[in-house]
Amino acid sequence: MQRPQSAHTARTDATPRPRPESARARTSAKPPAAEPPSPPPPKPAIRYDVYAGGLSASIARHRVALMSGSLEERRQLSWVGTRQPSDVWCFAAGSLMNRHILASHDLHPKAAVPASLLSHQLLFSGAPAAACLLPSAEACVHGVLYKFSGALLPKLEAVHAGGQAARACAQLYTGAQVECLVFRSDEAVRAETALPTALYLSILVEGATQHHVDASYVETLKSHEAIPRKPASAFATFPMAATPVKMRMEALEAHLDAHLRADVGFEDCLIVVNKKVLKWVGPADHPLLATVRRRPIDKTLEEAQQKYDPLYGRPSSLRDMSDEHKAYVEDAWASSFLALFECLGFVDYEAPPPPPKEEDEE
């Protein structure tokens, strides 16, 4: 007789039960292969052009729209290496060609190369006359192509006050072409051309020479008609007082401190120009008074550094300045502000300092 199956051995499913995995099998099993990471999307080409109508309002559009460009354009820009969208190329044909003028505006380019601006011409306009760029289909202008950080765009716009930002094409002396930023003047300046000063032209010539701009173009600038310099014998001066007072800088410093503490009035402000002590006699609401009421008291070196002249160079101290250069600075002040000052005397820089005061013994 066949014995019946127990409840433990009876199965309703004929499928064999899977055997449990051993620990060795679990450790030797390979995980499923991971899918290779997808490559990053290609970076868009960068076109360094700008929009007319001002930079401050279009920087956001500029950085978005400049993300397109053809393969040929990328080849033309390949000579500069890797570049970021925050950089922009700017063409200069005026005083900004000069490194000293560029530094005075706190503009420090990442790169600078000589180039010519296609389809433009250079005119001198304004009072005093300055270089102006205008579109011209059959002309070109030599100058310097600068690479600036995009953070300097608002400052460039402020320096070129009155100019309209536009895109243009500059050609390097190697033949490559680069789209760049240019500040163009209004068409109305065609009827307002004027002669530049010899000082202004000397700044352009020096700047073009610094960057090895085309030699024939430099000669053209040198030979351009200009308003001649004033001879040193014709420099304006502040007439000395009938009884001049000899003063020391220590006394002037103490006087300025008293003025800033409001111990003396604005009419007692004193400054020094070319060793002459000048007292303010102008109105209380004159804009120049703000310059008079701050240090340095001696404005000679400050003026020489702020208004660069290639004839005299950029001095680092008063001792670096020649007597003619100091008289040149006085001429600039006396020609414009003669009626605002009265000359009291002069500063004696050679006098020894006063001995220290002895403290009274108790």
Describe what you observe in this structure.
This protein is of the alpha+beta class. The protein contains 11 helices and 9 strands. The strands form 2 sheets. Strands 1-3-2-4-5 form a 5-stranded antiparallel sheet. A 4-stranded mixed sheet has the order 6-9-8-7. Helix 6 packs antiparallel against helix 7 (215-222). The longest helix is centred in the C-terminal third of the chain and has 15 residues, at 323-337. The protein starts with 22 loop residues before the first helix and ends in a 15-residue tail after the last strand. It comes from Prymnesium parvum. Residues 10-24 have a biased composition (Basic and acidic residues). Residues 33-44 have a biased composition (Pro residues). Residues 1-45 are annotated as: Disordered.
Task: Tell me the layout of helices and strands.
Blueprint (H helix, E strand, L loop, with lengths): L22 H6 L30 H7 L5 H7 L9 E6 L6 H6 L6 E15 L4 E20 L3 H7 L4 E9 L4 E8 L13 H13 L4 H8 L22 E3 L1 H12 L9 E4 L2 E5 L8 H4 L7 H7 L16 H15 L3 E7 L15
Parallel strand pairs: 6-9
Antiparallel strand pairs: 1-3, 2-3, 2-4, 4-5, 7-8, 8-9
Organism: Prymnesium parvum (Toxic golden alga)
Protein name: Gamma-glutamylcyclotransferase
InterPro entries: GGCT-like, GGCT-like_sf
